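WARN no homologs supplied; continuing
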Amino acid sequence: MNEEFNEYFNRQIKLWGQETQDSLQNKKVAIIGSGGLGCTLGIALGASGIGEFTFVDFDTVGVHNIHRQIGFKVGDDGKYKAEVLKELMESRCPYVKVNACTESFEEFAKKDLTFDLIIDATDNLPTRAAINEYCMKHNQPWIYGSVEEFHGQVCFFEKASYEAVFQINDRKPNGIACPIVMHIGSLQANLALRYLAGLSVKKDVLYYLSFDNEGVINTKKFNLPTA
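OK structure emitted
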């Protein structure tokens, strides 16, 4: 790679070496959802050296999104979220290819594209179930994340089934604040980057993080049954 590339990724090259950094350029990631988690994932991973991202989201930016969806600003309302994130990522890193798909995951899945990793950034249980079904059918690893109020969950799914663990319904999440969204999205991003860089990742373990009424952080983990 050239001198500018090495300067851009200087701190990561110090972390895991030139060969690993170069290998990330060959990785492809799909992020399903471009809201709060998707914004954090895009910012955290978009300038990491991963070669290609695809954002999948048919939703547009609303003013009520901006306080917690850190990729958007006043003036973006009405624009497709996936397209705004594509523009943001490309402005931050010249070494990444970004695709924006303004359609549902169900429509996107019909294209049967190949990815090294799929990351769930939705707030919709039926869509997560569809992601799980697709990934199990294609032996595709994926990372789940959800957040509500002051708690959230993260899991790297490899063999376990999401539908075997969670009850699927169409309920909408309650109130939410920006910091917990960024926290959960960052944990997803860390799992993704470790996996893509060839570092160890604990799979099929659900991490549950919450703040109690005293503001104390609690973390629990659960080993999920595998198929």
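Residues 66 and 72 are 6 Å apart (CA to CA).
OK
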